[in-house]
Amino acid sequence: MQQDFLTILMFMLFGAAFVVLNMVAIGRLLRSKTKYTAQKSATYECGEPTFGGAFIRFDIRFYVICLVFVIFDVEVLFLFPWAVVLKPLGWLAFIEAFVFVAVLAVGLAYVWRKGDVDWIPLHGHQAPGARLSEMDAVAAPSSAVTAPSSNPAPVTAAADG
Amino acid sequence: MNPLLAQLTAAETDGWWAGFQAFFVAPENAWAVSLLLVLIVGKTIPGMVSLLVWVERRGAALLQDRLGPNRVGPFGILQSIADLVKFIFKEDVLPGHVNKPIFLLAPALAVIPPLVVLSFIPWGANVAIADVDTGILACFAFSSLHVYSVSLGGWASNSKYPLLGGVRAAAQMISYEIALGLSALSVFVIAGTLRLHDVVMFQTDGLTIAGTTYDALWARILDWNLFKQPLGAIIFLIAGFAETNRHPFDMPEAESELAAGYHTEFSSMKFALFFLGEYAAMIVMSSLFIVMYLGGWTFFGVENLLTDWVAEYGAANPGWINWPLIVEAHLHVGIFLGKLAFLLWFFIWVRWSLPRFRYDQLMSIGWKRLLPASLLWFALTAVGVALVR
Known about the structure:
Number of strands of chain A: 0
Strand order of the largest sheet of chain B: 1-2
Distance between the termini of chain B: 32 Å
Oligomer: heterodimer
Number of domains of chain B: 2
Largest interface: A-B, 71 and 84 residues
Strand content of chain B: under 5%
Order of helices and strands of chain A: HHHH
Distance between the termini of chain A: 55 Å
Radius of gyration of chain B: 23 Å
């Protein structure tokens, strides 16, 4: 067992050496020196002059999902040792885990109902918002006749909420 | 110690070989054994990746009715080597606007975790590099580090396309990781172990129905976890596609929307390392699928053909290296690689057959379809195991 973990450590060191060798050493010896110009060190944006940087405040949308992920991932982690002892312990172990998973499943149902797994949440900071499926339903018929207005007709959240 | 390794180092002989043995058997030289293993396996991975890239490009051409790379070497098989040479000689631009430490760390994080996970995979009965009791936990721990390379690489680039690619990758990979973990968990519930070697053995010990163990060919086939865990296997495969950012889940680097996604600003070898990491992650995911659902190195009894020979040779030549054991190891690895080739071809096949999902569709598949399905399947499996035991 100790030998195995030693091997894993060796493998990590091998990976690190592989990266350093390839990224830094070999290329630096072989290739010609880079001559930087203003264009070369500029941001790549398909030829357009860059407008501002990217270290900005950015709506990552799935913030709540990250929280839910942490909870569920820890759940899965706890269940791995449990999976080994389910056969010897039987129903006792089953009921313990069932309660544990059920509580988290209720949490998932709550997040789902609240709309946090949707691209445009029903409630919260995106109001007035409509779910994309509803937006499609609104936008599809109008696009056939005339160009749709810049704002799709807002579907009130109260109808679903 | 690994039996194969013990066989190579413990047999008593005279001459030059004995000197090697004395060196490797000594406990204080355990690092040398590890280093030997790591060098052998570590060198094969880039080779496998370059072959896979060639297969992908030729396969894409085949499916799209064109030729693909066919100039360098026979059938263009050396194309990847030529590409590698080009990558090495390419100008290595470090743009002025990036966050340098993280920008340089990201390609390293893309390569190292998949390489380490490959050390846990049992390629044959005695051919696991690191045979750890908590094998699958370690696998998931290392493979989930892969998300850092993509999201940090995207953020550190300080450019809009990479930022979007990195954010997409982070949300996508954590969304599918839970479904992946839960579907894998069902396998370990029925196998009752976390050691990958034992999970493979669990799929070859004959099918037990109502107390009777069947050993016929049909029972051997149905003993694969693919047939005991059909829904779990499908969920694992879908989530595996999403985890490795492959089509139809390759939103982080959707060319038509985001230029090259999270690695737009990376050039030369830095880009090559991302490339290598992505394909190595594909090999890792396929290997895990084979170990957990497709019976690992076994193939309905073919893997046991040499067992008698190994035993006879061992009995007839005590104190001498058991060479048939090494031949058997090659047979096991060969079977494993055959399955791996099929599964990797499946990855490529899907890539050129299905269109990409829209991003909100991708998230709703993950959270509203796969996660409840895997929870349900996990609960069903647990009830079944508690009932039957």
